[in-house]
Amino acid sequence: MKFTLSVDDQIDTLISLLELSFKKPNVTYKILKPINMQFYTFLQSLGLLIITKESPDSDDNLTLTFNDLFWDIFLSLKTNTSSFIMIETNFKLYAYTNSDYEISIIKLFSEIQLELPNLVKAMITEESVNNAFEKGVTSSQIIHFLTSSFYKGELPVTISNQIKIWEAKRNRIQTHFGYLYSNFLNLIDFQKVHKFCLEKNCIIDKDIEKRVLIIKPEFNEIVKKYVETILKQP
After folding, report:
1. pLDDT digits (tens, 9 = 90+) for 110-162
2. Can you name the residues that pair with 119 across neighbouring β-strands?
3. CA–CA dist 94, 72 (Å, integer)
4. One MF term in GO for this entry (predicted)?
5. What are the pLDDT digits (tens) for 5-18?
6. Amino acid 162: pLDDT
7. Nearest CA to 145 among 115, 119, 116, 124?
8. Using an 8 Å Cβ cutoff, are 111 and 140 in contact?
9. 179-232: CATH, from 3.30.70.2610, 3.20.20.80, 3.30.450.90, 2.30.30.20
10. Where are the domains of the chain?
């Protein structure tokens, strides 16, 4: 099996490895987010993973199980790898490593400021962490990596707490598509449209003082025709 890695594939593969590092051997896990099925299939061809389908006629509901050999590989890597990361409370990160794998993981959630043969200086910011979240990385995975690689002592609580806060903040933000109605010529017209939209239960958001309404997309044509009717009235 030929397994090639573009830049995006490398990122997806690292995310997949992070996810698998949390799993236990000989336990079946449901693949909720198959970020990199090509990589999973590659591991299966090596005899490290078993991918099964709950339904033979569908690619949904996939599960995977990895054996003791895969676990031993992870365990040996953890045993032979010394702590190499230092983080200041101002979120500056210093990694004493020349491992492409470790540097690639660091790049997932931080902004690289300086890269030398044996040293990487980076900054953990809300934007850099959000970039990792967009790729499917969780705060628990970032904290687990930092904790297991931290040099002397424990990872500062302020760092782990802030990463969790950024994730919680991101999860609170929801995006909705809608149509904006504003610039009503008078209050009476706005009140009529507002009442009409309330009856249709099609308002996403509103600002009564500024005479602004945001309408659900599927109701746009109905509201638009109603507004045109009002404008035609003497």
Report:
1. 999 988 878 889 999 999 999 999 888 899 999 998 988 887 677 889 999 99
2. 116
3. 29
4. ATPase activator activity
5. 565 666 677 677 76
6. 96
7. 124
8. no
9. 3.30.70.2610
10. 7-75, 84-171, 179-232
